[in-house]
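From the shared-data thread, chain only:
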Amino acid sequence: MAGRRCVLAMLLLLAAFGPVRAASSGSAPLGSVPFGSALDLVTGNDFAPFTGEDLPQGGLLTDIVRRAFGEVGLRYEVRFMPWRRGYDGVLAGKFLGTFPYVRTPDREMEMLFSDPLLEVRQLVYLSVRSGMAFTSPEDFRGRTVCAPVGYALPPELAELAAAGALTRESPADLPACVRMVASGRVDAFVIDEFTGRSAVAKAMAGDEIRVAPLPYARAGQHLILSRSLPEAAAILAAFNAGLKKLKEGGAFEEILRRHLSAAP
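Structure, as tokens:
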């Protein structure tokens, strides 16, 4: 009961500041950021149908994040930039938070995670030129996997890479990974089924890439805020409450249908 009263108090305090519009400078030091921060959120491109400045409403998850904050009377601007730059900007206090990110041990040391925005299947995308089959992460041993700068390998593959048991290629973006797998330069990349399908279709590489029959895993996509931001836990509590309202009210399913019906 005490915990519930504490969360309620935080939500009431947030509502007193809203609606909030983010300032464009985003340069205030962490210690001076007011509760209900006026910093921007940040996300990246080439992650259809979830995020991208060329997508309607900035993509499915951009739409969900904005709408969830709106449910609790908050409004933040969203910037699009390279993934690594956005993540580092959140750590440095230049941005309030970033999305969508899956949990990894390294990220959890630096960031707080929201409730899942969406849970997705991660699939293994293979070159038709590769004889690789996928039944377990051990099948990646001795192989070359592609994950762009700012993207995380699944934990098991990250451990193999750290041990030198697989090679990681890290181009600037996901389209480059698609091209590298299609050409046979690398064996595989691992990503959610929606983004993978969209990226392969956009590259017109369907004849050069095959999908392993067995999914790699299921993973949640999250909004993340730096642990160094004093208000991070309270802002995420408000966001989670807004996300819950969005899901319970039926708007969440409408957003999914609208965005996914337009995806390849």
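The radius of gyration is 19 Å.
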